[in-house]
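User: Predict the full complex structure for these chains.
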Amino acid sequence: MSVTVVGSIAYDRVETPFGRCERMLGGAATHFALAASFFDEVRVVGPVGDDFADNDLAILQTRGTSTEDVERVPGGKTFFWHGEYGWDLNSRETHDTQLGVFEHFEPKLGEASRSSDVLFLANIQPDVQRGVREQCPDARFVALDSMNLWIDIARDSLVRTIGEVDCLILNDAELRQLTAKPNLVQAAREVLAMGPSVVVAKQGEYGAALITADAFFALPAYPLESVVDPTGAGDTFAGGFVGYLAAQSGERDDATLRRAMAYGTALASFNVEEFGTKRVARLTSDEIGERVRDLQRITHFEDAPVELRA
Amino acid sequence: MSVTVVGSIAYDRVETPFGRCERMLGGAATHFALAASFFDEVRVVGPVGDDFADNDLAILQTRGTSTEDVERVPGGKTFFWHGEYGWDLNSRETHDTQLGVFEHFEPKLGEASRSSDVLFLANIQPDVQRGVREQCPDARFVALDSMNLWIDIARDSLVRTIGEVDCLILNDAELRQLTAKPNLVQAAREVLAMGPSVVVAKQGEYGAALITADAFFALPAYPLESVVDPTGAGDTFAGGFVGYLAAQSGERDDATLRRAMAYGTALASFNVEEFGTKRVARLTSDEIGERVRDLQRITHFEDAPVELRA
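Assistant: Here is the predicted structure of the two-chain assembly.
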């Protein structure tokens, strides 16, 4: 069993009120792979330039992640993003995006990547995502991320792509935008009607919600006293969520999906504790298990009969 | 045992993208009383004007709520608020506030209201709240609400008032503003250091979080397909939360506080289903119990051992 992820591998410059990092390994596929590799073998598909450092390739390969399909484009430059977060880390401004080798990226999946049981289509142009989906006809569970840009300029293509996946993982504001429904439950139902059987609404510091035809599950974010850099939290969440499902052979009954949410939430909480991939790169299995148990404690309550007045 | 609430009794004009209501019963004390009266005897302290209708007084008296200390000011006008909500119901604009009899409100508590075991100080000028607190020296559990206005113009007084209560119930954005801490856990710890032993952060559509010295608990809002009018949701939550604790004789161990959060969340979810007090006014005990059980289902997950890769 393995998980294939197709998406960006990047260098990020990030500024927050609490510090800055000039150049660090980032990108959706990177964050996803670091998280998902705790659960299953990961195969990364994405382009890098000549400037991509060997030690960053080594980080990508953590826990045996295959970089066979990481394409090094001669003369090319690795995708670069420069962003800055506001005081409460909820607002972020993009100062610079240099697509570099990502601009003309045409994902070419090797035989092994095409045969993965589980596929994660990180945020890219939806036509490209659909092309990858077609290269993996046998995948038993395909999850998709996207962003407001594609809703703005390529909504029809995005809706077609959504129609060919099992699970959409999107920020809740983007779910509202996509469906023009301000209500989360209604928005999720619209997406379920487009094809997927699972919708995950990422709610940033408030956690995430899971909506299927039969169930609604919500989990708060793990409460941290110090959040340093939110970059990559969503992809790390997806790595934990999709990776957990992959390790369960793509099973997706309600109980399994809920556990996957807990692992995604736990992984994401580590990601934001330090800049870039630093914290997750040295994370241990024990720490993950502990945080999942903490999440149970944080959300658990026992009802007890109370006499209500009439 | 009884709960005394001191706060506004109002007429509201509310516009949302889904409808409008020209004039309806509202106010913090009203919403609180309707919710809390499911759990315990409520005593309302607040002023109304000549224009206050008898049938609205009857609604206040639902489930035996005492209006003995509702002061009818001759020649006065009941507090009036006119607000409008945006598309996603998260943003709201105040078009008009006519304080009326509320402007010179000096709460006078009768003997019975002063001897309540539990006291809720709804959002009013913090000096006035402190005056009421002093009238109830024997209350075993005192909870406080406030708003951004008082943080802006009367922060010192508010902090003094916070120092004399057991529980602060505040919107999470206001907690950040009050403490100048963008991080919720840090903000809550600052408040705990001011005196209270319990902090509740209201997070609107995302639910609410409970922070004590020993524990963190978070509960999502009940997922509704249709939200009509969020006005009063916070006070209805407080009514369920504080009312539940009052029915437990002011007990506030961790398990009891968590259950109180669930009852507050359930009550608030009914409040927003229709304009003003309409939905809660005809609510039944069975419906509340059912929604609390739903909240358990919505938040429950079982961990199961998963082999993590090293």
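Chain B is about 35% helix and 25% strand.
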